[in-house]
Amino acid sequence: LKNVMSQLREHFAYIIIDSAPVLSNLDTIAMTQLTNGLALVVRAETTKREVIRKAIAKLEEARINILGVVLNRREYHIPKIIYDNI
Where would a tag sit more exposed on the chain, N or C end, judged by fewer CB atoms within 10 A? Predict the structure, then answer.
């Protein structure tokens, strides 16, 4: 994978890899160590805070640069038209 990433970097400015969850797969940590950083994807109202804390701790322990967090499947609790105008 290290060789593939090196070759891809010669041709592309950005490389996005969709991988398995951090806590359920050790390969994710190994693969992420070959990148510039990671965007942690969290499912709204489903992923427990403790799971997020453990994932962040594991990433920090591996010295992985956390670029940010993506919150997906968020539900609007107020009408979307009102939310858009706030």
Answer: C
Local structure of 32: helix, strand or coil:
helix
CA distance 48 to 36: 26
Tens-digit pLDDT string for the chain (86 aa): 888 888 988 998 888 888 878 888 778 888 888 888 888 999 998 989 999 999 999 999 989 889 999 999 887 777 778 878 87
The answer to whether 1 touches 27, Cβ cutoff 8 Å, is no
Is residue 41 classed as helix, strand or coil in its secondary structure? strand
